Amino acid sequence: MTPRDAAAELGIADLAGFLRFAQSCFRQKRKTLRNNLGPFTDSNASGDCPEAKLRAEQLSVADLAALYERLR
Known about the structure:
Elements: H1 6-10, H2 15-25, H3 33-36, H4 45-48, H5 61-71
């Protein structure tokens, strides 16, 4: 058996960067992504996405990966 490469399946080239992003998303559980990602993004780009009003726990891993790629 060989382990699958989940990062490649999700289209994540920089796994360490994605893990930092995910940590920022879940930093404060009851805050929305817009508030948690303020320090992660250099502009208000996170407020422009449709997921900005959601909490991190409401997104799947694939959704988080797609959001990471859009904000990078």
